[in-house]
Amino acid sequence: MLCDIFITDGVVARIVPAGSEAGPALRGAEVVDLGGRFVIPGLWDEHVHMTQWALAADRIDVSGAASALEAAAVVRSQLGSQRADGPTLVAVGFRDAVWGDMPSLELLDGATGGVATALVSHDLHCVWLNSAAAARYGVPVGADGLLREDPAFELTRELGRLPDDAVDALVSGAGRAAAARGVVGIVDFEMVWNRDPWLRRIVAGFDSVRVDAGVYPQDLDRAAGEGLRTGQLVPGSGGLLRVGPLKVLIDGSLNTRTAFCVDPYPNGGHGLLTVGEAELLELLLRARETGFVPAVHAIGDGANEVALNAFAAAGIAGRVEHAQFVRQQDFARFGGLGLTASVQPAHALDDRDAADSNWPGRTERAFPLRSLLDAGATLALGSDAPVAPLEPWTAMSAATTRARGDGRAPWHPEQVLTRQEALAASSRGRRRIRVGDPADVVVLDADPLAVSDAEFAAMPVAATLLAGRFTHGAGI
In the chain, fewer beta carbons within 10 Å around the N or the C end? Predict the structure, then answer.
């Protein structure tokens, strides 16, 4: 049915049948004809590392490399006239969990010589260095040349220490690209004190999306001391910036084989539990005292059990980030505890081979979107960019098909969501545009419930509005 949407002061004021109000009702109003297109609530990406995503666009992409040897060759081909005393050469996206060979210091040194080189894995939990980079940053590496978990995070932050104006320009471009795909907001979990960089960007003119800026435990005392709490608008941001959740990482990742699992990996070990249950409980209690919503990174089924135990003991609701591997007996606990599962559906397709390799015969519990939803969990979809592209339609397509159109059969199709469910999980539960909502609206050239799977994955977005202001497609 064709409707007219009235927006006043950035809020949806009225929704009426098309043409039913005219004359005085439109006097002095700006009228935009959407040409009978489809409108949906604005989309959110609930888990982004925005600076890393922006920087990735300016780095060497080795995501297509099928081996360590091939990744090293890609980097070698990009050396050009790079000097040993020049900037560090940075590549991104490698997936050594599915390689037949192994990264090594000798291999990367042979490919890069004295040019400092660092390859950041697609999951951000691992960095492969050559000797020149290890020396430049003063980090010890073994024969494999790898840093994992906290040392990898620390070096990744160091690699991103570029002039503010250079980083901010890349972030602005990434924000405009997100708006062009219907995104009106992101939850940014960049591993820094994140409020001030975002406030600087917004004051300088960034206005593409809303931002909930996460806080990490090392900054919780500072945040609490400044009176910050989750959901609080940051003064001076024009309503675009809010304080986000408290992010707590308690295990590693699938690619790096550090996700904490109940059963051992094929080559031994259970992964890493980097924050124990007692310590996590203390953090959740501190979050409750200071007004922060906890967002607990838990990928392995062992880590998810620890997170659920701590949430139950703390008596606080919150988010579990990723929830990639969950045992049957734990699904109902998500719903019973009132938790949000912040999930990234594209990872199911990116990581299906690694999951089948690491968890053979047990992948029915991997990326269990339908099981979580049916158990009463709230789903919030995202990308974890740069782990997957900041592209909501890719995420929703993966959630609704468990396939990528590459000829492979759907992976555990019993876990698919409907399109209505995927859209709601991408718009903070808003299934339709309602009077009184912020006028965060996406205008589509096709009906998202009726197009083919291929069209849905590449959905044409005609325009995006944020509080009634066009952030994309103003000339519609």
Answer: N
